[in-house]
Amino acid sequence: MSRALVAVGLSHHTAPVDVREKLAPQPGAVLGLLTELQDLGIGREAVLLSTCNRVELYAVPGPGHDAEAVARWLAERHGLSARRTLPYLYQHRDDAAIRHLFRVTSSLDSMVLGEPQIVGQVRDAYKLAREHRATGPVMHRIMDHALLVAKRVRSETRIALETVSIGRAGVELARQVLGGLEGRAALLIGAGEHGRVVARSLLDYGLTELAVANRTFSRGAEVAREFGAAAVPLDEAGRYLERVDIVLTSTSAGRILLDRAQLSQVSRRRRFRSLVLIDLAVPRNIDPAIDQVDGCYRFDIDDLRQVAETGKAARLEAARDAERIVDEEAERAWQWLANAELNASIGAMARHAEQIRRDELARAAAVLEQLDPDARARVEAMTKAIVKKILHAPIRTARTLAADGDRHGLDVLVGALGPGDAAPASEPPPEGAHDDDPRLDADGEDGAA
Asked: For residue 2, what pLDDT band results from cuts at 50, 70 and 90?
């Protein structure tokens, strides 16, 4: 019997950006990864969350697989050595996996505590997996619950009000180098969410001019209109490097767009006037070797994290309230999932025993056909009663094992009395089984607006 739920991944807490970018899926690759995971039988259900700060896979493992199998597949699928990558990957199981998901969705695990973007990113990852049939009853229930938890955290605590945003962190980095932003110009390359957030903050804090370059010009023009900025073709962005003070990159290109050789030439033409380059993409768009170019000041997403940490102490009280909500809701969700898994285990034993009963009656069909209908009905009732009485003690033991958290004992019991791996939790529970936690009326609404 497989684990009910696992969460495997890495984040800014466990891995630097140069490791995270190696595991980040290329644009459009997520669906292929989810399909392969299911085709290989490693995961029955899965949702893949990939942001600039984390890559995480939430999965209901297939028969014979667990969190480590999912972690090894995730590393090797990206051409990485499992031995070298596993130390960066955390592995959460069952109730710990649920709690981790709820903390992530509620922005308690974010680079910027309380930031609003993550709930939308989780919702989009879930939507993509659901639309392509990578999810099932367990993921539907747990992901819907996670979105509701995020909504409750934002409505019942002050965590969002105490946030130092990624945008504000970008402003502070620019100010450290340039001083004030009045009279300054910036170039935004790409239309990524974090790039737009930082660009908006720069404008709010006095930036005078902004230009937007994007691979798709129409999309760049749309973002430019949002900011009252100028849209430029991507292949003309290079000439703006000589005249702007700040460059933001936020693309999904998955490769270096600005390298040391290019910026060395630009810096000489600028007469080494200060140029702030803020790389918000993972994988990165700006070559780290640019740090060696005079006049260029490069920052990546991890640098913004350090700035955003300033003032974190003021948010800890709100975070404690949020953690209490997460713990409460995670326990509730785990009870539902544990009950569903228990019911599936009991159902597997009951179905196996019922099949044996029917097979034996089929072998005796010639004898039973000689009986009158009332006698055959009594035989049918008698054999059902025998099966029920035989199963009574194992089912009671299964419930005790589940209540004690003895997952191994439950696996052994089901393996001895059932046909093997328990049926998915979506199958109806056997007679007498019950779910003490009624289904949530989950609306999946983003409470971060």
From this structure: very low
If you average pLDDT over each of 63-72, 400-409, 428-437, which comes out highest? Answer: 63-72
**Interval 149-191: pLDDT, tens:** 999 999 998 887 655 667 778 888 999 899 889 999 999 999 8
pTM (two decimals): 0.64
Which residue type sits at 233? P
Amino acid identity of residue 84, one-letter, is R
Tell me the per-residue pLDDT of 83-104, one tens digit each, with 9 for 90 and over: 888 999 999 999 999 999 999 9
Both structure tokens of 422: 């328990």
Q: Is 296 a catalytic residue?
A: no
- Domains assigned to the chain: 6-162 (3.30.460.30), 166-312 (3.40.50.720), 339-417 (no CATH)
Contact, 416 vs 118, CB < 8 A? no
> First and final CA of the chain: distance in angstroms?
41
Compute CA distances 401 → 21, 171, 330, 347, 409, whole Å: 42, 55, 21, 16, 7
- Determine the Cα–Cα distance for residues 226 and 152; give it in Å rounded to an integer: 30
Q: How many of the other CB atoms lie within 10 Å of CB of 40?
A: 13
Instruction: Write out the E strands in 304-355.
Output: none
**Cα–Cα separations (whole angstroms), residue 196 to 27, 178, 180, 318:** 19, 20, 20, 27
342 contacts 401 by C-beta, under 8 angstroms: no
- Alpha-carbon Rg for the chain, nearest whole angstrom, is 28
Catalytic residue among 30, 46, 52, 111: 52
> Are the beta carbons of 100 and 109 closer than 8 angstroms?
yes
Tokens read off for 267: 């810096």
3-state DSSP assignment of residue 38: helix
